[in-house]
Amino acid sequence: PSSHAALVIIGTGMAGVGLARALRRLGDQRSITLVSADSGDDYSKPLLSTGFAKGLAPEQLAQRSAAELGEELTAQMFIHTQVDALDVDNQTILLEDGMVLGYDTLVLATGAAPRLPFSLEPSVAPRCFTINDLDDYRHFHSALGHGPARVAIIGAGLVGCEFANDLHAGGHHVSVIAPEGSLLPRLLPPPLGNALSDAFSEAGINLHLGRSIDSIAAESDEDIVLRLDNGDTVSADLVLMATGLAPRTALAEAAGLSVSPSGIVVDRQLRTSHPHIYALGDVACVDGVNAMYVQPLQASAKALAATLSGTPTPVSFGAWPVVVKTPLLPVVAYPPTTTPERWRIEGEGGDISALAENKDGRLIGFALTGGCVRRKVELSRAAPTLLG
Ligand code: FAD
Description:
Layout: E1 2-10, H1 14-25, E2 32-35, E3 42-43, H2 58-61, E4 62-64, H3 66-72, E5 75-78, E6 83-87, E7 92-95, E8 100-108, E9 112-114, E10 128-129, H4 134-144, E11 150-154, H5 158-169, E12 173-178, H6 190-203, E13 206-209, E14 213-218, E15 224-228, E16 233-236, E17 238-241, E18 245-247, H7 250-254, E19 259-260, E20 263-266, E21 277-279, E22 284-286, H8 294-308, E23 322-324, E24 331-334, E25 342-348, E26 351-357, E27 363-369, H9 376-382
Parallel strand pairs: 1-2, 1-8, 2-5, 8-21, 10-17, 11-12, 11-17, 12-13, 20-22
Antiparallel strand pairs: 3-4, 6-7, 7-8, 9-18, 14-15, 15-16, 19-20, 23-24, 24-27, 25-26, 26-27
Helix pairs in contact: 1-8
This protein binds flavin-adenine dinucleotide.
Flavin-adenine dinucleotide binds at residues 10-16, 35-38, 45-46, 48-49, 82-83, 109-112, 132, 159, 162, 248, 251, 281-282, 292-294, 297, 325.
């Protein structure tokens, strides 16, 4: 069986759906097919790490079902369908059920997948989770059950910290374990990471920083026990792995497109190394930059929609800081892309500003906590853009 569409988009995350919406907004009427390995429900991924505090059921996070989305976009939807291969010479893609879809233009919006640093014993695997889409949220939500649960979170990056704060606010007992010595190590210099640690600890979140995990074992029907390198143990009902994301480049790579560890290589017009194939969102490395957050993918969707409808439009990214959703201590960060000559750190308690400067004393990034987050707009204006 086969079918054909003028535009095939692989991925129904914010990038794939954002592009389809931007095209329709421009009045583009070509036939569009969207293919997704997940449920295809329209949801905002950033809300996944705010749902437990509000007690939101998975259905409340889906803004539209895949069927409603297909209607809104006048697009054909294939959901819970993995794309197994691209045939770039014949301009077709192969779906897991054997169906072949032809395209004139193909867009890869396959996002990024959780990176797991170690393999899990079969006895603990069913109680270890990642949350990177609405289906994952659904599974974790049902495993949590009704009463307060003990959740061990592995990883102290944005995803780990946001879920720690959110699950704590939802009444669960949270521990965070990470090899780095402070929270948000890639976004905050240590004094600000420590301010966040203080806020978490005071609230009752157990932190095990600077620690690696020697073993994870199911010691009874109830307890999963994590043994740390200093001999400490953490007992939990569930484990949440927040150990980083890697762009899903396998399809592109197998088809011979140019990829790097940061993603599918694309130019400012989001063109891959192959004519008729574009990429955007967490999977794409645009002119050397893969920011992996929402504002750059929205700008990319808008630029690519214009390009595909006949007005070639290079994308640019502003100085868009990341707002970390940790209400226990608000955090805003715009990490410098090169190692700063110095950090100028001011403030006290939880209210700290850190300005990264290069050797000429120019601002190249910043990090703010507590009351200092109100400097976000002023500092963003002074900082260099992400992709000018
Ligand atoms: P994804 O949403 O990962 O979508 C990828 C799509 O591709 C999915 O539909 C998937 O099923 C499909 N797919 C992949 N491979 C295949 C295949 N072989 N066949 C078929 N389909 C395939 N950013 C912010 O700016 N602000 C925030 O506050 C924020 N909070 C976040 C909180 C969490 C918990 C997480 C995980 C991320 C957060 N981010 C935030 C990052 C932001 O959500 C992502 O940058 C964005 O959602 C990425 O969208 P995407 O469409 O590129 O990828």
